[in-house]
Amino acid sequence: MNTNLQVNPIPNPASIPPSSPRRRALSAFLLLALSASSFAATALTVPGTAVAQEPSGATTSVPPISWGACPAAEPPDPDPSPRAQCATVKVPLDWSKPQGPKIGIFVARYRATDPARRIGVLMSNPGGPGTPGADDALYADDPVSGYSPGMLRRFDMIGFDPRGIGRSGSAVCDETITESIPARPRDAAEFERLRTLNGRLADSCLQRTGPLAAHMDTESVARDMDAIRAALGESRISFIGHSYGTSLGERYARLFPGRLRALALDSAMDPDRPDAERYLTDAGVTVDDTLNRLAAWCEKDPSCALNGKDLIAVTDELFARADAGTLREPGPNGPTRTKVDADRLADFLTFAVGKGGREETVKQLAALYTGKGEVQWIPKVTVIASRLVLCRDYDFRIRDYAEYRAILKRAAKAAPHVRYSSQALDIILGCQGWTMLPKPRPTQAEGPLPPVLVVNATHDLATPLPGARRMARSFPKATLFTMDVVGHWLYRRGGTQEAMRVIDAYLTDPKG
């Protein structure tokens, strides 16, 4: 199923009301990470065991979950739904050493409201990496960001905070080191300094967090998911993952194919472990295409602040002025003395084109062009927990500064009007010099896989459409559903509610 539906653009995530308890922090790719509150839940052991599989193919016993009351929320968030229950599941810190030290995974459940028609368990992950996930169950019935009543009737909703995140033992690193790391290395010396400081940051995570910092990769979390399944006493689960959560779903399918009833992947990451160049190129081309889409709207709509001008030519001129050192921040009465370089302009375009409303985005481009007005610069946010995952999952290592410059040059050729995606480049540079090396992708285990549903926006700057296509191709039977929108995370009310209906219909399909 390939559908191109013309709908309103996805609203800026920042526009979701702060009072919404599950303001779904779409992912670290969007640089909106939830704060990791340190709630403690009691792990209660009762007689009897369930079984989860280890890397060797052996089994480890997991005590059945004993549910209890959920901890109260920290203000200003509301308390969880009264239907929610909470517990902790103990899992091996290192899955290759199942009898070694254990860690606790915080799990929440929202029980099906129609037990007679209950299908089973729907486990979820809201993305990140670095985002707690238990809120998916704690606030499953939230009218703004929760699930539809039909889903709540049919499933026990299961959310969990991934290892090292939130209430599952927050990883701690020396974040002061990030203040000295060059954001965009301009010569070989700065590139080496970036790698050295990234290495010190990684080492600080190990020193302050302990060995858990080296075991926060996606494979380990997928094995935790199977331990949760076993503790629930379920033979199979359904799973919905958003953004980075799609990597967890894909990895679970590789490790435990026979234990999946259904797999819905919303805003899918590339499962093929792309190198730095392909990752940067796919993202940059998406930003460039989205700018062209914006230009086409501006040409037709008189309300556009640059109507009557070629928006692409305006952007090219802004980059030329930035390269020449003559582009300045706009002010209320004209240009200020503060220079805007090409990297800062690329940052602005990545976030404004991908997340901002089109009228406001062009208004700010016009301010840069004329020198009069205001630009809302997006501050840099470092989500270190994401590096503890992504730098183990992907091999983004670049040999030296010369190779780095060559990659940037080729990426800019593929995306000539924006040069690169700032989000993608931040992730790639964050992994240079990381001392915890990439972990091999596990082989596909034998077993039947259900038909899979992959859903993606045509213009998704965080998880570009080429990666979603590769995700769909990675399964024997998969459907790719697309919506012709700019944005990320389609399972939501509003402009992309059609995707929500498609996902709900797939997950509740009686043939599943």
SSE blueprint and pairings:
Blueprint: E1 50-53, E2 59-62, E3 84-92, E4 102-110, E5 120-125, H1 135-138, H2 149-154, E6 155-160, H3 188-209, H4 218-232, E7 237-242, H5 244-255, E8 260-266, H6 276-300, H7 311-324, H8 342-355, H9 358-370, H10 384-393, H11 401-414, H12 422-430, E9 452-459, H13 465-473, E10 478-486, H14 497-507
Helix pairs in contact: 4-5, 6-8, 6-11, 6-12, 7-9
What would you say about this model in short?
The protein is α/β, with parallel strands linked by helices and 512 residues long.
Tell me the CATH superfamily of the largest domain.
Answer: Alpha/Beta hydrolase fold, catalytic domain
The CATH class name of the largest domain reads Alpha Beta
Shape: globular
Q: What's the β-strand tally?
A: 10
Query: What is the CATH third-level topology name of the largest domain?
Result: Rossmann fold
Structural class: alpha/beta
Which CATH architecture of the largest domain is right? 3-Layer(aba) Sandwich
Please give the order of strands in the largest beta sheet: 3-4-6-5-7-8-9-10
Provide the residue-averaged pLDDT. 89
Rg for CA atoms? 23 Å
Largest sheet: 8 strands, mixed
Oligomer category: single chain
- The termini sit apart by 17 Å
> Percent of residues in beta strands?
5-15%
